[in-house]
Specification:
Four copies of one chain form a homotetramer. The two termini of chain A are 18 Å apart. In chain A, helix 3 runs parallel beside helix 7 and helix 6 crosses helix 7. Chain A has seven helices and twelve strands. In chain A, the strands form three sheets. The first copy, chain A, has a six-stranded mixed β-sheet, covered by helices on one side. A four-stranded antiparallel β-sheet of chain A has the order 2-3-1-4, with helices on one face. A two-stranded antiparallel ribbon of chain A has the order 11-12. Chain A is an alpha/beta fold and 278 residues long. Chains A and B meet through strand 10 and strand 12 of A and strand 10 and strand 12 of B.
Chain lengths: 278, 278, 278, 278
């Protein structure tokens, strides 16, 4: 696949935005290979993802956003520009539960995830050749350990942090340093069963369907914008252990889908919601 | 299909229950056409549903539970006996939203629901020939109206009350009069979005899946034992109206499934949970 | 919702199409409220659905396609233009099985389907006030009956024919008269179980999932472009009657979704495939 | 979990089977911890799975089937007896595609599969410590290679062969040696898209849902009894590569579920169908 640029745009909803953006691309000899848009009719916000060929574009990559600035200004637009041949740098943080970590590494090895996985933090050494950092944490060392984590993320110039069943609540400092750039997998169908032991909570409540939720991390626990969810049917016969086992498959699949959507620059965040283009 | 008896049993888990029940049936020249069991390993409770042919059984219907009493006593067992040719008498209570009511009546007319629907309460007269009772309710008349409802249910000797989007919270008096015999459809994936306007709540939270839940009504709002749940995928493009429309299909299907399970004597309730045999 | 125009476009994939279309709209003071596109990378065909506000557009409705002709010519484009306030005229043909007919009429009454249902053909008179035509058919009268059907469709100026479990194979004459304008519901997950008695076929094969498929009718039986499919899980315990009952829910839902997609001008057909925009 | 015995029974449907089996267990001081049954009403065949505690049973393991023989004879019953603490010996055969192999090994390592995986055949050495046999095959060497395969399976005393995307059609000799003991994963929703390149076939047909099917291998290609199936939704936007990627997740999950059902002695085969107890 030839490299493409991806413009992620959001602005107050108004006339002429689509034409103005298409004109900008066309006027620089660009070619739009894919475009999607969405308007939030309640918030009156317009969102667009425009993917265009880099090849033949008559501006250099570092000139494009500057040239686009007048359009962005005219529509009071927030504009991000990414390139599909520049792979985001990803760190994965896991804990004793390694199924999500393992699954992501396997997909990455098979070419399914357009990323560079640059660091892995886990209790178990299942890093498959990726630089491996173990920063053990206890109640006493949490503050110091978070500082180490921040330093490590900075050192590796990480673009995206994936909490693959990390089982630690991050401090506001860490969360604020990576806004909409930390993805967590919660093992319930949020907002049901917030907090600890969601499978036990689900068992106690006697639900007939369980779920898993991938979301961006914000300061409020399990309240961040949802990227993706998946569910499966259970019955009275399923014990907590059965729910946990069935849930592992949900967790791995939904986390992988969410990470992939982020890495393909298909996600826009606003408030506590996401637009995930198809 | 020839008539069958259905024994619904529950007791503390212990050795020999299955054989004792099978022996009882066999010793009276009965034939088990279907049996299912479940043990809750945490609560240590045993549940069984035993369906046997009435034809050829060497006791009259009204003698069977008496003859079974020693077995029930020995195992400290709760035993219910129903017959598949004795149709439960059902009342459906709806409100302005009539899709669930309409769907249940259509399924009933087509022979899908083994019941006699004996009364319908709704704001709209879509009763399809079923005795129709309109008992309007306002904040001021709620107590009096509930008394009328209770009288009507008694008058029609109702076995099961189905709240097909009734939109009123029942008083403890009414709930207590029909324990595990009032089924409600809640238009969310419980326990997410308890209370009013769940589709708006779901839209505000930005979930990627919505659901509907059929449950027995207890005194705690939306906390009763869950019979069945169903979900469907939504995206950022779905407005509250879209969620409502998509949700209607979930509500009709999950309520019909739950009512059918109840009418086929496949449900056992314990605590706030259900065993729904297949 | 204010009226909008919907341009449905397809052409050989090439540079500049998106900008040319956006320019055309903008140059006539139009405003694009939604646009979606797709490129079939194998067939090298570009598809687009552009929805724009009618209000404020500086051409009359009957002038727009003419003014767009140079753009269409330049890109060798097929262009259709529809308006969301012009409701397609729909005829529904059913047979003894009436659940899909009934469901469509109910949704239509509730405002869910943007159409005028102008005629219903069914063995059972469940027409809910819609003009009702019963044209009985036997092996001997099939040719004559089809001529009557064609005349009736012409008389009612029908835009879309929905076969809601019609159970008759249409002749090529009828099919050719309504290309991509006859939607059929087949009660299997096509291409599995083509032809008669698909639920029996599914039962004999012992599948663990059954489905239903809505497709446009072409001259080849059950081979037309698929609009939508839905499935549900079954087990060894489900008889053919159970599959039929469970399947009815699939059929009604998937047919309603497909009809709705067509009526909202979200479908483009090419070869034996469809693009169904979201 | 204490060890249990599992009786898998099938016989012509007739009165008294359930009681006779329960009596047999009870008369030897056994305790039934779980029992499920099914009657095929068309074929008039009765199936039962009875799980009972080994501890306390008053016969040795190798005496039980002999003691049960009169019951089996009386009802013309086929009876198998297995023990949950005797792990089946499994060989996995894969090819260049290793996602299913890898997934099964991971689940096995995590304790999810009650089996001894004794041999792995694959083009890639991803055997995670399991004895590894690479028996390369070409068109010319197929017969000789199959002989080697048979010898290897015999040498390792294999109970179950799992074809985890093996991509070779087995000869009748091999198939006949392991009746209902070879599980294959086919990457389509059978019986749709039998044979080669099912994802390409699915793409060409324009289906809106794809699937995967786990089945026992018989001499007829892709016609063996189905153990489990799973599906996922696709759109016009999914290329063959996308279908392949999405399908991989289906394949791994459905194969793992099917293998687990077999290993837990929950499957009975009759004709080309399966009973899979829950």
């Amino acid at each position: 696949m030839p490299a493409t640029g991806v413009l992620l745009l959001s602005c107050p909803d108004q006339r002429g935005v689509v034409a103005a953006v298409a004109d900008f691309i066309a006027s620089h000899n660009g070619n739009i290979v894919h475009a999607e848009q969405h308007t939030d009719e309640i918030e009156k916000v317009f969102f667009q993802r425009v993917e265009f060929e880099v090849d033949g574009f008559d501006l250099n990559r570092d000139e494009i956003l500057g040239a686009f600035a007048p359009v962005a200004k005219r529509f009071d637009m927030r504009a991000d520009l990414r390139y599909t041949d520049v792979k985001p740098r990803v760190a994965i943080m896991a804990s004793k539960q390694s199924h999500c970590l393992f699954d992501l590494l396997t997909r990455w090895r098979s070419g399914e995830l357009p990323a560079d996985i640059v660091a892995v933090h886990a209790d178990l050494v299942q890093h498959m050749g990726v630089p491996y950092v173990h920063l053990p944490v206890t109640a006493d060392t949490k503050t110091a350990q978070e500082r180490q984590v921040l330093e490590t993320l900075a050192q590796y110039r990480v673009d995206l942090v994936v909490l693959a069943r990390y089982m630690q609540i991050l401090s506001p400092t860490l969360v604020d340093a990576y806004p909409s750039r930390i993805i967590n997998i919660h093992h319930s169908f949020l907002p049901a069963f917030i907090g600890a032991n969601p499978y036990r909570q689900a068992h106690d409540r006697g639900v007939k369907i369980i779920g898993a939720t991938a979301h961006y991390v914000t300061e409020e626990l399990d309240e961040g914008p949802i990227l993706d969810q998946e569910v499966t049917r259970v019955t009275h016969r399923d014990s907590v252990a059965d729910l946990t086992r069935k849930g592992r498959d949900l967790e791995t699949i939904v986390l992988a889908r969410a990470v992939r959507a982020h890495l393909e620059h298909r996600v826009l965040v606003y408030g506590r919601k996401t637009v995930v283009f198809g």
